[in-house]
Design goal:
With about 500 residues, this protein is mainly α. About 70% of the residues lie in helices and about 5% in strands.
């Protein structure tokens, strides 16, 4: 027995509700008329525009149905769903609205399909009322579930809850439920994935692909995507809010980060957007940028560790160099002390030698009972002996002086060497202190989160600009000037912001 399903979404009070009412009042699917004829030229043109303007619509199963079997029915089904999914962006488009107002395959009661408490509802009056209404507009709809769909499955379509799993469920029941959830959409993606997994486990080898094509009209790729979403997502509301295509993109993030990422604003082309506001391509780029930032952050952390290690090594080297400089200074003082003592000893010996050389030779001769000749001979002999003794003393003192002078010269050289060593040690200590200060500043800068993030983003911006420049060079003559103007505007914006910051 068929059952009723009530769905109650709403349009936010941002305008466009009156246009939506006119669409609902005259839309197709009030009663569908089968039509297997080829699509019209207008339908083909509109589909081409839709997939260009909204690339995410390519993942809709209606689009796959259209590509597999291009008929007026399938074309209209895809167009309708794509228009509904992107209503916020298209409700002001004249081309899209013209199609909505005049599209085929709808049977209506009179000029429209609206009904109310009165026997006759004025479409124009209702449109005027909505045009002036500032609150949220609830769009309650009632749908009929197909026979064979369980109450749990119906409730899951309304509230996003999982349908109760029955024992010994047959492939027919699973097939009907998948078809049902295809019509529900949104949160039903997970339910479809669960039942596809269930069906694949039941089907024999070789039955899986034919069943997909013939019974539920899924490609293998689409089925695998749905099954993966069902495996990965516990939050059904997240999938319902974002849709299957974005949910698949979010799988690139760890499971623990997806929900937070989806709830945050992200910078996209200079504009902050939520995930629900992004296109699929923008979401892919946002995730890529996030991963790049994480890699850069990890690189920054590693660089910080290297800087801290370098700082520790620099501190040890600077401390060792300082100790060496202090030892060199002590050695200089000791060498100077030795040199001073050698100089004093040399001066003392020089004085003694001079005194010896200048000292007269004293001769004492006994003259008792001696003749003058004997006395003269004795004096001469005594003078000779005294002179020899003095000369020997002088020679000895000269040798002592020579040795002292050598010691003095060696002490002076030792002082010079010690001074040179001290100077080298102090220069090395100063250089290592400078390196240490540099390492400390670098580590402090890396430890500053804001500065570290700036460094990461700056390098990232450089890479982006380089890539933009490369792409600009690959463009044709018509588009290249436009891109270069855009790059020029970016440059001017950066210069302006930098000027404001330094003013």
């Amino acid at each position: 027995m068929a059952r009723l399903i009530l769905k109650s979404p709403y349009i936010k009070s941002t305008g466009g509700a009156s246009g939506y009412l006119r669409y609902i009042a005259t839309r197709e699917r009030v009663e569908l008329i089968p039509d297997d004829r080829p699509p019209t030229r207008k339908q083909e043109q509109l589909i081409a525009k839709l997939v260009k303007d909204f690339p995410d619509s390519k993942v809709l199963y209606e689009y796959e149905d259209y590509l597999t079997k291009p008929t007026k029915v399938n074309a209209s089904a895809f167009i309708t769903l794509a228009l509904e999914a992107n209503w916020d962006s298209i409700h002001e488009s004249e081309q899209y609205m013209k199609y909505i107002a005049t599209r085929p395959r709808a049977e209506r009661i009179g000029a429209h399909g609206l009904f109310g408490d009165e026997d006759a509802v004025s479409l124009e009056k209702a449109v005027e009322e909505l045009e002036n209404y500032t609150g949220n507009v609830w769009t309650h709809t009632v749908d009929v579930t197909p026979e064979g769909v369980s109450e749990g499955a119906a409730l899951s379509g309304m509230f996003g809850e999982s349908a109760p799993v029955e024992t010994e469920r047959g492939i027919e029941t699973i097939t009907e439920e998948i078809i049902f959830y295809k019509n529900v959409g949104g949160q039903a993606v997970i339910e479809i994935g669960r039942r596809l997994t269930e069906a694949k486990a039941q089907l024999k080898h070789g039955e899986w692909l034919p069943w997909l094509r013939e019974k539920v009209e899924f490609s293998e790729t689409s089925a695998q995507n749905f099954m993966r979403i069902a495996r990965e997502y516990g939050n059904t509301h997240l999938v319902g809010d974002l849709g299957a295509s974005k949910a698949l993109v979010l799988l690139a993030l760890p499971a623990s980060e997806r929900e937070n990422f989806a709830s945050e604003k992200h910078l996209v082309n200079g504009e902050e957007k939520s995930v629900s506001e992004m296109s699929k391509r923008e979401l892919e780029e946002a995730i890529r940028q996030r991963k790049l930032a994480e890699l850069k952050a990890a690189e920054t952390a590693r660089e910080l560790d290297r800087q801290k290690e370098a700082t520790a090594e620099a501190e040890a080297a600077a401390e060792k160099a300082q100790e060496a400089a202090e030892a060199a200074r002590a050695e200089v003082e000791n060498a100077k002390s030795i040199s001073l003592a050698a100089q004093e000893r040399t001066a003392e010996l020089e004085h003694e030698l001079k005194a010896l050389r200048e000292k007269p030779v004293d001769v004492a001769v006994q003259t008792v009972d001696a003749s003058a000749e004997q006395i003269a001979a004795a004096v001469k002999e005594a003078e000779k002996a005294a002179k020899a003794k003095r000369d020997a003393a002088v020679a000895k003192k000269a040798e002592e002086l020579k040795a002292a002078e050598a010691q003095r010269d060696e002490a002076r050289k030792a002082v010079e060497n010690a001074e040179a060593g001290r100077k080298a040690a102090e220069e090395q200590a100063a250089a290592l202190r400078a390196e240490l200060e540099k390492a400390r500043k670098s580590a402090a800068a890396m430890d500053n989160k804001a500065l570290a993030e700036f460094g990461v983003l700056f390098r990232q911006a450089q890479e982006t600009v380089n890539r933009l420049t490369e792409l600009a060079g690959e463009l044709d003559e018509e588009n290249r000037p436009k891109v270069y103007r855009a790059l020029g505007a970016l440059r001017n914006m950066i210069a302006e912001k930098a000027g404001e910051a330094t003013a």
